[in-house]
Specification:
Elements lengths: L7 H4 L17 E6 L18 H9 L1 E7 L5 H10 L3 H4 L16 H6 L4 E6 L12 E2 L6 H14 L3 E6 L30 H30 L6 E6 L15 H4 E7 L8 E8 L3 H8 L14 H5 L9 E5 L13 E5 L3 E6 L14 H11 L3 H11 L4 E5 L17 H18 L4 H5 L45
Parallel strand pairs: 1-5, 1-6, 2-8, 3-4, 3-5
Antiparallel strand pairs: 2-7, 6-7, 9-10, 10-11, 11-12
Helix pairs in contact: 7-11, 11-12
Amino acid sequence: MKSSLLFAASLAAATPAVPLATGAPPRPNFVILIADDLTYRDLGCYGGQAHTPAIDRLAAEGLRFERCFQAAPMCSPTRHCLYTGMYPVKTGAYPNHTFVSRPNTISIVQRLGAEGYRVALSGKRHINPKSVLPFEYLSDPIDFAEVQKFINSCQSEKKPFCLVVASHHPHAPWTEGDRTRYDPARLKLYPVWADTPATRDDYRNYLAEVTEFDREVGQCVALLDQAGLTPNTAVMMLSEQGTSQPRAKWNLYDLGIQSGCVVRWPGVVKPGTVTSAMIEYVDVVPTLLDAVGGKITPDFDGRSFLGVLRGTTSRHKDYVYSVYTNRGVNNGSDHYGIRAVRSEQYKYIWNFTPKDPYANASLRNATYRSWEQAAAQGHPGAKTAIDRYLNRTEIELYDIVTDPFELRNLTGDPRLAAVQADLRAHLDAWMKQQGDLGQETEMAALRHMVKYARGEGNNPGLNDSTGVDPRKAKKKGADTRKGAKKAP
């Protein structure tokens, strides 16, 4: 993944984007920089312990969102949401390693392409099919020489561009970056983690790779700055879902679904500002279209937050939604679907099958294994962390303002009965609108995973490796529970 700044100098003399027509104002370029499993709280500009000078610079020169969310705490559904402007179940891209199966779905590529843009993706993909997402695919991993060629080509053609630069950092196993910058003994751990040497070592290694992502951000921004593209380019940094350590990725707690979002856009965004407006990844494409006068069609789930960027409004959404599908996840509990709705103050989580212990790939990492060993030796914090992670009630309700790490479940508190009922009503309405049938949708998830599909969604129920069609799994003795009972 190592890349070089050797190509930056040649960009210094490049010509900024020019108008599409004589006398017309130049259309803005868009650059979206996205991390891979980065907990937003770890970024320097969010008060975190990672060394992130490039991202901090963007925040100082732009707008930082305190309440940005994505609808699924897994890489593939998150990216499909971002690029289509639609929620996961609606497009069919809701388990991990998924693909869009909804007919006639189009993405940021066709949307901005219709407005005269070239749209490219450099780095991590994890999206399908290409018929829905026909980016100009550059190298994976990121090669800034190719990024330079793409920018130069757009300038030669006098066309505006949208470029997604998708890092593989800081996705596990955290093998890159300067670990000597971080002393494990001095790191402050999240209160949902057990304090073990392995937890600290893994966190140190992860933070070092967060800094690697920041290096890539700095490298990309340097190309834009040195080319003179900054005045006419909106740069958005997104941290994606949280780290794969317990209670972040794979979960609907805020450490999993809340994202860092910073936007630098000279002349549009006031430098050094912060907003508490709630936005979602599904809002990004409608916002870009709105910025260039494009058509925002009814099939979008997202809404433009251009007014928030311009500073003409301080609010956007009252509720945000999320979905987690454990089916098909490595080492996962095959029937542990989760849905959630969040307001500015409260979070309501519905666990479909709480009688099952929760499990996923994070239970196999060094951190979690160290918790098990510590708990066996009588470490009280480890036992609490494990119990909190594995054993969940059907409904969880949290006051995010007073309990940001979601440690105190307030379900059943009579003082919050109206709050709980309101959140449940909004969640039910959202699921109905999305065609989400709860546990029935969970059990159908394998049909929406690439490894069970042939081609780009043809015969999506077939498992190529076994020849078993999950839609006929009942004959094989599989668990065919219809779903959890109606939750309070």
